[in-house]
Design goal:
The protein is α+β, with helices and mostly antiparallel strands. It contains 14 helices and 13 strands. A hairpin with a 5-residue loop joins strand 12 and strand 13. Helix 1 packs across helix 14 and helix 2 crosses helix 3. The radius of gyration is 22 Å and the shape is globular. The N terminus is likely disordered.
Length: 418
Amino acid sequence: MQPRPVIAVKVARGRDADRKPPHAPRSAWLTPGARSRTVKHDVYLAQLAQHADEFGMTSTSPRRVLLLCGGRSGEHEVSLASAASVLDAAPDGIRLEPRVITRSGHLLSEDDSRSALRAGRSDEIATTDAPSVLAGLAQADPARYNAVFPLLHGPNGEDGTIQGLLAVADVACVGSGVLGSAAAMDKIVMKRLFASAGLPQVDWQGVDAADWSDEPDAVVTRLRSLGDAWFVKPANLGSSVGISRADDDAGLRSAIETALRFDRRVVVEAVVDDRREIEVAVLGNDRPSASPPGEIVVLGDTFYDYEHKYTGGLAELRIPAELPAATAERMRELALRAFDVVDAAGLARVDLFLRPDGRVLVNEINTLPGFTATSMYPRLMDAAGVPYPRLIERLVDLALERHGQRAALRVDGGPDPA
């Protein structure tokens, strides 16, 4: 059966590509002039328009989107919360079909998925007759959808695995592709790429399970070069899962043991005292834009851990952050550079530190950030003039645009046509 093609969408090109969206205040956006990649928009738009006509579709037809959520990761509940919020806020032009991936690796039916999203958990849904993820996706036939929105935070969803599967299936996918997802997910790879691009960072080192098992004392001695206080993180998790602060050797050993329960590799960062935690949202593909910076103010003497992120009243989000204009501009510039370095697409949230001396450091990039209506990324985009329902629609547009770019690439390997 011939796969159902995606719908053509209008993409700005030429002088229009540099024009800010009419709904966004000019001060809130920064469009980089340094990106050198060019796209043959006319080619793939013409191809997509041809397919749309063939199937009786237009760019104004409701787009059918498969919403994947849950997943086999420590961020399962976060994913369910994001998906439930998206399902409630989706605009009329987007028809979402949610499918929850359970912690055991089963794909729930649409009805069971909606029940799980209402409950905020999937462990009480019977999976006796539920197929595995691979078999379930084959039955769902992703080609029946215009796009797939993989709201899967953490491993087995945000790390390039599901993105690779959808690329092989030739289906448009919201967000970054295989490379961008994998590079941003693995903090060790990400930090090495940032270093190669000259992005300023916190001092850090990596630890793997084999080294820790063989020579823990040597590892601790090596890590003392970072200072006398550390943040210890699993290399491949987000939402502050498995993260600990250590202020002595005993705490460092315990923090490493904790992080290694979630991943075989660990990132250890030097603590930057009196830092301000700033985040910037990025939206776009080849010509992304950056939101005004927002600040996270943790209430109490601790850090922005999982509890503070997802429990009301423990942290305050200040949007926009109170910053000198030059500092805010520098942060947006660094966010766009980080987006480019990992070859991200669609959306990303870039986390930065502002030191007391005014120096800005890039901490990390998250290609599928928390996506509830009250999460930092949607709130930053709202401050930039893109309300939540429109943001959902825009991300689907960007997925179709990137899929169209791939469709226009030659695959025959022969000589260039005359």
